[in-house]
Amino acid sequence: MISPNTPLRIAILDLYEGVANQGMRCIREIIFNYGVAHQLQIHITEFDVRSKQEIPGVDFDVYISTGGPGSPIDSKETEWEKKYFHWIEDMLHHNNTSDHKKHVFFICHSFQLACRFFDVAEVTKRKSTAFGVFPVHYLESINEELVFAGLKDPFYTVDSRDYQVIQPKLDRILALGAKILVIEKARPHVPYERAIMAIRFNAHMIGTQFHPEADAMGMLQYLQSDEKKQQVIDNHSEAKWQSMVEQLNDPDKIMYTYTHVLPNFLDLAIFNEISISSKQHQHGKTATSTI
User: Fold this and answer.
1) Where are the beta strands (DSSP E) in the chain?
2) How far apart are CA 219 and CA 239, in angstroms?
3) C-alpha neighbours within 13 Å on the C-beta side of residue 173
4) Distance between CA 242 and CA 203 in Å, rounded?
5) Which residues on adjacent β-strands are paired with residue 166?
6) What is the C-alpha to C-alpha distance for residues 135 and 147, in angstroms, rounded to an integer?
7) CATH class belonging to 8-215+256-279
């Protein structure tokens, strides 16, 4: 457990490869707000994994690995991916040999890479881009998952991806002690398998296909800029843009996910418990307060 007088060191592994994004801003803001709320001194160090092949050591307290553009398959055998996978191996070795365990959160592109590393499922290209605000659904295994404490079933997430994690390798998952936690919404009108949206890989590593860091108000401002609005309309449709704006304005959707998932993860990583405000609510029930 970290004391209020001990500086907390958090590593952000930036996989955006220099592409403009909202993810880094959102992650920084969640960490900053968490530090203020818990009166913690927090030092953030960012590592440009893909462009500069920067990788942290095992001397940080908490690790968050971001989403990013491009294919999580075509990077096989690249130098940056080799270093990234070696970092995961180093984290596993540290956690297996040290009393001071380090927690890791993998987001979107990082989640897809982690699924390849742990060999728990297939990572494939989607038939079409998933972009927007979507409901995701619990599996029974989520009942013991503290990072999702206080969320409803379904809960809403921001999704932006051309790839997916499907066809879980159940024997491998069982051997690792991993758990599939969340799957995407049912789509009865299409003959496609529902993708895996969250996995706990082990006691200290968890990941989501969706973006738990997405800040509804910040994203709303971003989507309402003339350039981004036109880009969404051109690539998807005006109806898709309008739907996203409406759902981002709903406080029970993206803001609810934003105020639970990563703050819960930080609670678990730093204090080895979830704050009282989350413990008061069970999965599937409406909560009246947030972290």
Assistant:
1) 8-14, 42-48, 62-65, 103-107, 122-138, 155-166, 179-184, 196-202, 205-208
2) 17
3) 18
4) 40
5) 122
6) 17
7) alpha beta
Residue 81: enclosing H or E segment and its boundaries?
helix 79-97
What are the phi and psi torsion angles at 188 (to 5°)?
-65, -15
Could you tell me the two tokens for 177?
A: 């002690």
pLDDT in tens, 63-96: 999 999 999 999 999 999 999 999 999 999 999 9
- Please confirm whether the linkage preceding 154 is cis (ω < 30° from 0): yes
Distance CA(21)–CA(150), nearest Å, equals 28
Name the range with the highest mean pLDDT among 3-7, 128-132, 136-140: 136-140
User: What dihedral do alpha carbons 169, 206, 12, 122 form, nearest 10°?
Assistant: 10
Q: Dmax over Cα atoms in the chain, in whole Å? A: 55
Q: 140-146: long-range contacts (C-beta < 8 A, 24 or more apart)?
A: 141/179, 141/180, 141/181, 142/181, 142/182, 142/283, 143/283, 145/179, 145/181, 145/200, 145/206, 146/264, 146/267, 146/268, 146/273, 146/274, 146/278
Collapsing DSSP to helix, strand or coil, 206 comes out as strand
- Distance CA(207)–CA(65), nearest Å, equals 9
Residue 200 pLDDT more than 80?
Answer: yes
